[in-house]
């Protein structure tokens, strides 16, 4: 083998290694941001934190997420606050006499030991009231969740489209999420 061929071969191997390292770094940061809306405080894990976009002039917005309690004791989501509005309430949706009714959960929502509570359209949700601005798809805003036992955790809501049934990064039908 000639000296020039050996040098060229070594340069190609080095270049490939450098490109592979950059590719790994890129994937690490890309995947990290894909899961940026997952939070943990104590035994509580909060995932899929999102909100719906609002039409111009709307004064309310719905916020959604999933809470998993990995602990042996129940906890309670007591309240939320956000930079988006001065008032945020935890609500549930219930069918009563054939009519869907929204109810304020003034005492919060219990997250059972080893259990999961989904805040989703048509169920539990957070109602952000007296909005300071219109929410557009792709916007983000900060909020604080207060748990009775786990404490306070800062989260970021990512805004999906108007009328969305699930965050943009997750299919609305959840068919691939088999729960056993």
From TrEMBL:
Keyword Signal in annotation: yes
Domain of life: Bacteria
Record PROSITE patterns: PROKAR_LIPOPROTEIN (PS51257)
InterPro entries (UniProt xref): LpqE-like, Lxx211020-like, PCuAC_sf
Keywords: Signal
Pfam families: PCuAC
Signal peptide: 1-36
Keyword Iron applies: no
The protein's name in its UniProt record: Copper(I)-binding protein
Native source species: Bartonella apis
């Amino acid at each position: 083998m000639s000296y020039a061929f050996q040098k060229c071969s070594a340069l190609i191997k080095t270049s490939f290694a450098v490109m592979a390292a950059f590719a790994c770094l890129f994937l690490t940061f890309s995947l990290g941001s894909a899961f940026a809306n997952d939070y943990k405080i104590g035994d509580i894990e909060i995932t899929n934190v999102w909100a719906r976009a609002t039409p111009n002039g709307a004064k309310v917005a719905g916020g959604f997420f999933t809470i998993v309690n990995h602990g042996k004791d129940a906890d309670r989501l007591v309240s939320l606050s956000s930079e988006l509005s001065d008032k945020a309430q935890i609500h549930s949706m219930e069918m009563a006499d054939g009519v869907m009714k929204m109810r304020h959960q003034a005492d919060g929502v219990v997250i059972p030991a080893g259990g999961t509570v989904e805040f989703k359209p048509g169920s539990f949700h957070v109602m952000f009231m007296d909005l300071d601005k219109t929410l557009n798809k792709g916007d983000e805003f900060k909020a604080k969740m207060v748990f009775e036992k786990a404490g306070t955790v800062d989260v970021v809501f990512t805004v999906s489209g108007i009328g969305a049934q699930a965050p943009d990064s997750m299919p609305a039908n959840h068919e691939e999420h088999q729960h056993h």
